[in-house]
Design a protein that fits this description.
- This protein is α/β, with parallel strands linked by helices.
- The chain is built from 41 helices and 22 strands.
- Strand 16 and strand 17 form a beta hairpin.
- Helix 23 crosses helix 24, helix 29 crosses helix 30 and helix 36 runs antiparallel to helix 37.
- The longest helix is centred in the C-terminal third of the chain and has 20 residues.
């Protein structure tokens, strides 16, 4: 039996390629007693410790560090935590190193944290740094601080090391114990090359350019290897085993670190929470005397929260939500199960009154199933960080951190990264990208199996096989660390007592462990989520204030607005949160919402599975089929959804009414049934039937209703979440129905950069009678803005117009407070530094300089003269270089080049009157059924010719009209009619059958005419 003192794992971000799932079977095969993880940070520590222990191998928590000797020189060490105290010191050491730019540790810091930590000096690393006279001062300091736990680690890579005698003499001189050690960086000897490539990817230095000592002996040794290498030094092997087995760390996963809210002396969190809830609910309901049902619910929730020890948590969340309101940072109405808490509503954490919608508190917190509270908050994404910074400032930098997340080498990423290190040229890199399908989660093995082209390409050169085998070994390894999009941890004790931290962004620390591992330690996580739709809502609100002088309070919007429901019934929901997919539009047209709860229902139903009940809900709502209840006693629970079980809360209510379950027991039933575990299903069935019988129901009825619960458990959606998110949907629909110009302006601003989306929104806005004003050098700004009831085009949406240029333009406009009258005026004001052809040309082509009264051709020809004017301030009045007007067709092409679409009327609009026989356009295709016969016109934007298996020519032709583009499939017979005649910008009249491929409309052409 043997031990492994120096294993680095792949969690160490390309510093090793050893995966735990490969390591553990190997260690078991070698009958290993113990193994230590010694990464350069504590990445991957918890999974390593838990999985080794589960496999019956003694795990040791270790760390590889560099001790700072001078500004430029370091001394290498491996540390092991010997006890829980040593483990806590290891957390502090790892954190200290990771927050320093030098990524090493000063001697005084290491000495301060040395208790219960074993130090192993590595005398052969860093050019034998420990054997140099300059290192003796540091060595003496460590001996003085921690001699009992100080070791010399000797390796025998490729035989006895040339400096082994000096290392032994150093140990004897200071009476230090020697252990046998070996640094493992990859699993097997044949993995050395893949490891070198991983190192190249990490450093960005290609294989040919690498200039360092090759590590060809850093594989995981077998037991036989250990014995062979140290056969003459068995006492070193024994010392290694004794050291590792003397390290005992038990990581407690049962502790909860609930943060504390700062209070005045003599106050308790429970008392303050009760006072704030009382005052908050009185304000909410606008009454001093609260209704009985509210008092009962508040008392119950407070009792549960206090018994679980969560009072501080609610005060903390309420406090940063108060900060957000004071700073006018828009927050969401709620998310997930927290919307079912009346206390959250009273504290203005959520905007949903749970009693109004029969939301069950036990879906959030259940005394019969104790979990940490989980209130996720949505903020407008541009200001979320301000709230996180407030929390860090209030509770102290050492108590607050964001959570790390790791990116891995996906199939396509690893294929390209390895190819780059192999020095493959850019054309080859592009070829590799094309050969690996763009399928989420695809592996290299799947790509190889499914792509004949990839196999053929690899067979042409041996180097390509080596590339592929290397990529296979590295695929899936963690590559880089970044900040989790939402997670923030808050601790009552310094974080370094519980988790290792590192430097993050905005002066806020980052945990070295990802979400799951942070939660395992018992730290409380709060999700600060950025929601783009809140940003859009905020932009619309500001726009309405600017244009209408109306200060809109979203929480006061009436939920019975007729215009809003008319819009929803039409399915006019482009740009509306959660309701804008084609399928959702169809569901809205079928259901024809007349009440807010209809929106809640459609949000819950429009998912795979429950989607099949949309027609049932719609037909029952409109009295096209009778409403049938599973049992008359369930009418009160299911009448709002016409007898269809839609929500998890309904399942819980059924268990409560029919089987006498408490709501807490019903929540456990819901969870158990949704997991579909046979044992749990039968156990819950027995309890349900027994409870139903005791309430007077027959066994048959009990079984029937239980089967219904089992059937709908998969479909059931949390009503609390559906209600909260439907409020955002409704608010956006309300704004679109009542303030359409402001709505579309914000939508366009947020679609900037996506020309297809921009064109879709612009076309819809125009179809609704909204005039789009062209870009203007004097009036346009960064975003689309409302101007006299119209929308002024944004300068940011013009390709080639950089943000630094825009910044300067807006600054100059503000400073001189007068219009630019000519292109020369513009050039002089901006100076030659900013007035550059590459920026001005797109502005002219987009029409932003049309107000100077000159044709775009003349403006383009005058750019150089204007630059000279800006450069030299030439005497005399500068003159335009007059040119013939740009032809209309070329003008439109200019617009398409710099905007991605035609801003002036699309040529098709003018041609439509000549084609009365058409029955569709690209927009209407979305609402037509498959196999409909289509007659449509469009301009060719792209076509691709190919040969069938028989060698016949066919083509895929993309045509576009004013609403968008569609692909037309021309089989050989149809393509023969137009072969050789198709060009971009050709006008086509097409007839054929509508079909959908990958959820996109296409036309199978039967007749085609060039016009």
């Amino acid at each position: 039996m043997t031990v492994y003192p120096q294993i680095r794992t792949s969690a160490d971000l390309l510093k090793s390629t050893i995966r735990i799932n490969e390591l553990i079977p190997f260690l078991q095969q070698q009958q290993a007693k113990s193994c230590a993880i010694v990464n350069s940070k504590l990445y991957g520590l918890l999974p390593f410790m838990f999985q080794l222990k589960k496999a019956g191998i003694h795990p040791v928590a270790g760390l590889t560090i560099e001790l700072e000797r001078t500004e430029d020189e370091t001394l290498p060490l491996v540390l092991y935590a010997k006890t829980n105290k040593g483990y806590q010191n290891l957390l502090k050491i790892a954190s200290s190193i990771a927050i320093r730019p030098q990524q090493n540790i000063p001697l005084r810091w290491l000495v301060a944290y040395c208790q219960d930590i074993a130090f192993v000096l590595l005398p052969f690393a860093n050019q034998q740094a420990w054997l140099q006279p300059e290192a003796q001062k540091s060595l003496h300091a460590l001996i003085q601080a921690n001699k009992a736990n100080l070791y010399i680690g000797i390796t025998r890579a490729n035989g006895v090391h040339p400096f082994e005698v000096q290392a032994e003499e150093l140990a004897q001189q200071h009476q230090l114990r020697v252990i046998a050690t070996h640094e493992s960086l990859y699993m097997y000897e044949q993995d050395a090359f893949a490891y070198e490539v991983a190192q190249s990817i990490e450093t960005g230095v290609k294989l040919n350019d690498r200039n360092h000592e090759q590590k060809h002996d850093s594989y995981v040794l077998t037991a036989q290897d250990w014995n062979a290498r140290f056969s003459d030094k068995q006492m070193w092997l024994d010392a290694t085993e004794k050291l590792l087995l003397s390290c005992h760390v038990e990581i407690n996963l049962n502790q909860v670190y609930m943060p504390k809210f700062p209070l005045m002396e003599g106050q308790t969190a429970a008392d303050v929470l009760k006072q704030e809830v009382q005052a908050g609910l009185q304000k909410r309901l606008q009454t001093e005397i609260l209704p009985k049902q509210y008092v009962e619910r508040i008392d119950y929730e407070l009792q549960v929260i206090q018994s679980m020890g969560y009072s501080d948590y609610f005060l903390i969340v309420a406090d940063f939500m108060r900060f957000a309101r004071e700073q006018q940072i828009l927050t969401g109405p709620g998310r997930g199960s927290s919307a079912s808490s009346l206390i959250a509503y009273a504290l203005e954490i959520t905007q949903v009154d749970p009693l109004q919608y029969d939301l069950l508190f036990e879906r959030f917190l259940n005394v019969e199933r104790v979990t940490l509270p989980d209130i996720d908050i949505d903020f407008l994404d541009t200001r979320r960080q301000e709230v996180i910074e407030y929390v860090a400032s209030k509770y102290g930098k050492q108590y607050v951190a964001q959570i790390i997340t790791f990116g891995t080498l996906s199939a396509k990423a690893v294929a390209r990264d390895v190819a780059r290190m192999f020095n493959f040229n850019s054309e080859t890199l592009e070829m590799i990208s094309k050969l690996i399908p763009n399928k989420p989660g695809i592996t290299l093995q799947e790509a190889y199996a499914n792509s004949e082209n990839l196999r053929k390409w690899m067979d042409t050169e041996p180097i390509r096989h080596k590339w592929f085998q290397t990529a296979l070994r590295l695929e899936g390894l963690p590559r880089n660390a970044s900040t989790h999009a939402a997670g923030v941890v808050l601790s009552p004790v310094p974080l370094v007592d519980v988790v290792p931290i590192e430097q993050g962004h905005d002066d806020i620390y980052l945990t070295q462990w990802p979400m799951l591992e942070v939660e395992q330690t018992g730290l409380l996580k709060i999700d600060f989520l950025g929601l783009r739709n809140l940003t859009i809502l905020d932009q619309i609100r500001k726009s309405i204030l600017y244009t209408h002088q109306i200060e809109l309070d979203f929480n006061q919007i009436p939920l019975n607005d007729a215009k809003t429901f008319e819009l929803l019934q039409r399915g006019d929901t482009v740009g509306i949160f959660q309701l804008e997919s084609d399928g959702m539009k169809g569901a809205l047209r079928d259901i024809k919402p007349t009440h807010f709860l209809d929106i809640v229902a459609v949000n819950a139903l429009y998912r795979p599975g429950p989607m099949q009940f949309i027609p049932v809900y719609a037909n029952r709502k409109h009295h096209l089929e009778p409403v049938s209840m599973p049992h008359p006693d369930l009418t009160s629970i299911l009448q709002e959804t016409y007898g269809v079980i839609i929500y998890q809360e309904q399942i819980m209510r059924i268990a409560n009414v029919m089987a006498g379950f408490t709501i807490g027991q019903a929540d456990i039933l819901r969870r158990a049934v949704s997991k579909k575990k046979r044992e749990a299903l039968e156990e819950q069935r027995a309890a349900f039937v027994k409870g139903s019988l005791s309430k007077g129901y027959t066994e048959q009825v009990a079984h029937e209703v239980y089967e219904l619960i089992v059937r709908f458990a998969d479909y059931g959606f949390p009503k609390s979440h559906a209600v909260a998110y439907s409020i955002i949907s409704y608010q956006m629909a309300y704004l679109k129905a009542n303030f359409p110009v402001n709505f579309y302006a914000a939508l366009l601003t947020n679609a900037t950069g996506n020309s297809d989306k921009l064109m879709q929104i612009l076309m819809e806005a125009k179809a609704n009678g909204i005039e789009i004003l062209p870009p203007s050098i004097n009036r346009s700004v960064r975003h689309f803005k409302v101007e006299n009831g119209k929308i002024r085009f944004s300068l940011s949406a013009i390709k080639g117009v950089s943000q630094p240029f825009l910044q300067q333009l807006l600054k100059v406009r503000d400073e001189q407070q007068q219009r630019f009258e000519t292109i020369f005026d513009l050039a002089v004001s901006l100076t030659s530094t900013h007035f550059q052809r590459k920026v001005v040309e797109p502005l002219i082509k987009a029409g932003a300089l049309d107000e100077f009264g000159k044709d775009r051709a003349t403006l383009l020809a005058t750019i150089e003269g204007a630059q000279k004017q800006a450069d030299f301030m030439a005497f005399g009045k500068p003159k335009y270089v007059e040119m013939s007007n740009v032809p209309e067709k070329e003008k439109l092409q200019y617009e398409k080049e710099v905007l991605g679409f035609y801003l002036s009327d699309h040529p098709i609009i003018r041609m439509r009157p000549q084609f009365q026989q058409t029955n569709a356009n690209v927009q209407s295709l979305q609402t037509l059924k498959d196999n409909s016969y289509i007659r449509i016109i469009g301009i060719v934007s792209e076509f691709r010719q190919l040969r069938t298996k028989r060698g016949e020519l066919m083509a895929f032709v993309t045509i576009e009209d004013e609403f968008g583009a569609v692909i037309c499939t021309l089989f050989p017979k149809e393509y023969e009619q137009v072969v050789g005649q198709l060009n971009e910008d050709t006008l086509l009249y097409v007839e054929g059958f509508l079909e959908r491929r990958f959820n996109k409309a296409q036309i199978k052409v039967k007749q085609i005419t060039i016009k």
